[in-house]
Amino acid sequence: MTNTAVIITEYVYLISIILFIVGLKKLSHPDTAKMGNLFASAGMGLAILTTLFYPIETETNNYMLIFAAMLVGGLIGLIAAKKVQMTAMPEMVSLFNGLGGACAMMISFVEFYNYPAGQSLMNGQILTTIFALFIGSISFTGSLIAYGKLQGSLRDSLVLPYPKIINLTLLLVIIGISIYIVSLPELSFVWVILLLVFSLVYGVTFVTPIGGGDMPVVISLLNSFTGLGAALAGLIYGNQVMLVGGILVGASGTILTILMCKAMNRSLLNVIIGGFGTSGGASGSSKDQNVKEATYADLAIQLKYAQKVIIVPGYGLAVAQAQHTCHEMEKILEAEGVSVKYAIHPVAGRMPGHMNVLLAEADVPYPQLLELDDANREFPSTDLVLVIGANDVVNPAAKDDPSSPIYGMPILDVAQAKGIVVFKRSMSTGYAGIANPLFFNAKNSMLFGDAKVSLQKLITEIGNA
Amino acid sequence: MDGLITFLASNLLMIYILVFAIYLGMEVISKVPTVLHTPLMSGANAISGVVVIGAIILVRQAEPTDYLVLTLGFLGIALAMINVIGGFSVTDRMLEMFKKKKR
Fold first, then answer.
1. Which of A283, A326, B41, B82 has the smallest number of CB atoms closer than 10 Å to its CB?
2. Beta strands A308-313 and A384-388: pairing type?
3. What is the rounded average pLDDT for all residues in chain A?
4. HSE, side-chain direction, 13 A CA sphere, residue A418
5. Cβ-based contacts of B21 with chain A (< 8 Å)
6. What number does CATH give the domain A296-464?
7. Which regions of chain B are under pLDDT 70?
8. Could you tell me if B23 and B71 lie in one domain?
């Protein structure tokens, strides 16, 4: 490799790194976010091009194979990104993330395979590779499990017996194998495969016990794992752009994970070892209590003559694809002189910010969206709150039942309003699997059925009223 | 132990970069509104696809007859490209919606 080529390569990598950093910075402000994404993708494009064409000593290149792989992967990614429903965004991100982890895993596996025979393994190179293999594998299988759980093909109730013991044992076994590999006089491939298998299994057992509302936190955590995997691979190759790009994601992903935990008032450790989804439902033997059922005609009249209505949208609204119908009803009510706003809980939907994306898709104007604190200030002066497909984010147990698994999570305090109507399919518990005493509140009535169908019927009734 | 020390000594600069990048990554997004958590996670996720570079280097250096490496390399590139292209496009789609409602 000529000297000039090396220097050019290194400096183009530097430009890529700067684009990543500026991109991430811009991504964290609403006004510049779109530009930030463009910056980051430009950085990536530049880094890939440079890697493809900088001169290397062994001139095999295998370009046909590389281009074929890039084309196949790129096309699949593009189609998946265009086709995916906005509601399914969190699981898509999780799936993408797992694939990145798989790549880190494969690279480190090949690194072992290429390791010269008869050489001692007691060095930093091998330690880094072991760590990269471990992290990449967890990120891969862990993300797939998270994907399956969010998508609904894996039941949340799927629990391991004694998850803490299993996880701790597996971790110790993995550390043991790693130490053994390094202490051998030369590389034993069998043990590398064992390490790989145990790491893959650990990814599964790590994510399986975590469920319910904690899934976004796990995805964010796995995202930072993939970043770390990329950074370690960068260290193995002595490649700065991989190192910095990976570490940026690793560090910012960790911060993001912590921010998400804060939004739910939970600690990261609690999420990982807590076993959230399993202990719920204990509070309140609610079967004897009475639930009022609303009728469409009544509700239509109440809405039409209300001064102020706040809608609390949840994942149920998204699943029913009712965001457009909801926006339609809101416009009709506004035309009748009713003030309609939306109260968005930080973790509404499946991921923080997810609900904002969905409502934006339905063209709901930005000023109509209230954040948690503003919404709670407005509830006392609100005539009617419509809780559509939301459950855990309005559960008063988080406020006054210390035994509840979600105790301490800030909620939308809808009970302050003059009247509440909960749109729900059935009386079942929410995503977190916890009973909701709000349903039995004297001010509350229930409207059962699919959110979209209910809203359509309601629109018709408002027209008749 | 010697191997470890040699590694640390010869990668001193990389380790400096590593430490600074950790700090930078934490600073860069320390204040981000909840609205942007999902797009930011998705964008960061796309950046972590930078691991594709490792897979490209791997295949470029591989012997044309080394089928195990070529197969794993092919898979690695394809999977990481799904992560990169898919990640950036999905982020763009999400942010497109925020832009629309600004008007």
1. A283
2. parallel
3. 86
4. 10
5. 231, 243-244, 247-248, 251
6. 3.40.50.1220
7. 1, 99-103
8. no
Distance CA A457, CA A325 (A): 10
Q: Tell me the pLDDT tens digit for each residue of A42-97.
A: 999 999 999 998 888 766 788 999 999 999 999 999 999 999 988 888 889 999 99
Banded pLDDT at A123 (limits 50, 70, 90): confident
A383 is a catalytic site residue: no
pTM for the predicted model, two decimal places = 0.79
Q: Compute the half-sphere exposure of residue A223: CA atoms within 13 Å on the CB side of its CA.
A: 38
Closest to A136 (Cα-Cα) out of A196, A177, A178, A181:
A196
Q: Please name the member of B2, B28, B39 whose beta carbon is closest to the beta carbon of A252.
A: B28
Do B64 and B47 belong together in one domain?
yes
Q: Are residues B51 and B101 in the same domain?
A: yes
Q: Are residues B96 and B67 in the same domain?
A: yes
Tell which of B51, B65, B68, B98 to mutate to test the A interface (max A CBs under 10 Å). B51
Q: In which band, very low, low, confident or very high, does the pLDDT at A159 lie, cut at 50, 70 and 90?
A: low
Domain coordinates in residue numbering, chain A: 3-274, 296-464
Pairing of strands A339-343, A369-370: parallel
The reply to whether B23 and B52 lie within a common domain is: no
User: How many structural domains compose chain B?
Assistant: 2
Residue A369, amino acid: L
Q: How far apart are CA B24 and CA B26, in angstroms?
A: 5
Q: What are the tens digits of pLDDT across the range A216-262?
A: 889 999 999 999 999 999 998 889 999 999 999 999 889 888 888 87
Residue A361 tokens read as 């898709």
Q: pLDDT band for position A289 (50/70/90)? A: low
Q: Of A150-164, A207-221, A403-417, which range is least confident?
A: A150-164
Long-range CB contacts (within 8 A, 24+) of A227-230: A227/A251, A227/A252, A227/A253, A227/B44, A227/B47, A227/B48, A228/A135, A229/A100, A229/A101, A229/A104, A229/A105, A229/A132, A229/A135, A229/A136, A229/A139, A229/B48, A229/B51, A230/A100, A230/A104, A230/B48, A230/B49, A230/B50, A230/B51, A230/B54
Same domain, B46 and B67: yes
Q: Do A127 and B56 touch (CB under 8 A)?
A: no
| Domain of residue B65, residue span | 34-103
